[in-house]
Amino acid sequence: MDVIVPSGFVVAQKQPPNSGGWAGLYEITSVSWSSERRELEITIHDHVRSFVICFLRPVSFCSQDEADMLDYWSARHTENVGVATIYTLAKSDYLARIRGESTSALVSDLTHWLVVGVDQCVEIICREDSLPSVRETNKRPEN
Questions:
Q1: Edge-to-edge strand order for the sheet containing 50-56?
Q2: Using CA atoms, how far apart are residues 129 and 78, in angstroms rounded to an integer?
Q3: According to the model, what pLDDT value does residue 100 have?
Q4: Which of 51, 80, 117, 136 is least surrounded by CB atoms within 10 angstroms?
Q5: Are 118 and 65 in contact, with CB atoms under 8 Å apart?
Q6: Nearest CA-CA partner of 85 in 49, 112, 122
Q7: What pLDDT score does 1 carry?
Q8: CA 89 vs CA 7, 46, 50: distances in Å
Q9: What is the pLDDT of residue 128?
Q10: Which residues of the chain register pLDDT less than 50?
Q11: Separation between Cα atoms, residue 110 and residue 60, nearest integer Å
């Protein structure tokens, strides 16, 4: 299988406010899956505020160290796309694999979302019509 270079980075319309954290990024503090609600919650903070990014009924998701995604950062830079917390991608190995190897292959309208943190990133594949929500939490970040 040929490697697909990630491309088509778009800063998502729905974003948490700009972070005061390192490089303008939040730290991802938890990734939580509820099989009962079929909901993925990603908690982020910047030592001042906390937010939860929620995806309903994702097809697939994975979490990885940001250093394992250097090809993503190179592609984003080449495409001249700024730093943000949430992106969509038009092409990636992950999206191609999900389209080709799972029962979700029956659904052609899938979107690859990427939530970026200081040291961790979460990739999420959802139906195209499924948009994430972003809400501030009352929980204070732990120092």
A1: 27-34, 39-45, 50-56, 133-136
A2: 28
A3: 80
A4: 80
A5: no
A6: 122
A7: 56
A8: 6, 25, 25
A9: 86
A10: 105
A11: 10
Question: Which bin fits 95, alpha (ψ -120 to 50), beta or left (φ > 0)?
Answer: alpha
Tell me the one-letter amino acid at 49: R
**CA 115 from centroid of its chain's CA atoms:** 2
User: Backbone dihedral region of 24: left (phi > 0), alpha (psi from -120 to 50 degrees) or beta?
Assistant: left
Structure tokens at 76: 């984003």
Q: Give the 3-state DSSP-derived string for 74-133, with helices as H, strands as E and coil as C.
A: HHHHHCCCCCCCEEEECECHHHHHHHHHCHHHHCCCEEEEEEECCCEEEEEEEECCCCCE
- Beta-carbon contacts of 87 under 8 Å, excluding residues fewer than 6 positions away, are 9, 10, 11, 12, 76, 81, 113, 114, 116
Look up residue 78 and give its two tokens.
């080449």
Q: What is the SS3 assignment for 136?
A: strand
| pLDDT given for residue 12 in this prediction | 95
> What is the model's pLDDT at position 109?
87
**27 vs 19: CA distance, rounded Å:** 10
